[in-house]
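Session log. Operator J.P. requested a structure for one protein chain; no other inputs attached. Running the standard single-chain path with token output.
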Amino acid sequence: MSEQSEQTVENQELDRYECRACGYVYEPEKGDDKHDIPSGTSFAELPFTWRCPVCSAKKQAFTNVGPAGQVSGFRENLGYGLGVNTLTPTQKNILIFGALALGFLFFLSLYGLQ
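Structure written below.
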């Protein structure tokens, strides 16, 4: 097996899977307390009979959303957008809500002008 395919297999063990029916995200680092799945159990190691703890969807209803903290979006589009496309979802939230808070503070500062 090549080095790149070994890295892909290792990375997939940490990948999170999202239920397409309800949006629940299975995270291997946390496991599933409802079905007594210990932390560190990859999605591939889950039993075939495992169901979504929220909506009871089958395992086939889940899609791979990658590891936590991964840059969101398509790989071919990451070079566009003034560098914003390379931000993680958390960084994007900080940027958006920080700008909104700053704009609100500027708006409130207009009351000081007389």
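Operator note: Helices lie at 3-13, 89-109.
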